[in-house]
Amino acid sequence: MMRIDIITVLPELLKSPFNYSIIKRAITNGLVSINIHDLREYGIGKHKQVDDYAFGGEAGMVMMIEPIFTIIEKLKYQTNYDAIIYTSPDGKPWTQKTANHFSTLKNIIILCGHYKGIDQRIRDNLITHEFSLGDFVLTGGELAAAAFTDSIVRLIPGAIGDEQSALTDSFQDGMLAPPVYTRPAEFNGWKVPNILLSGNFPKIEKWRENQSFERTKRFRPDLLDE
Question: Can you give the pTM of this predicted structure?
Answer without folding.
Answer: 0.90
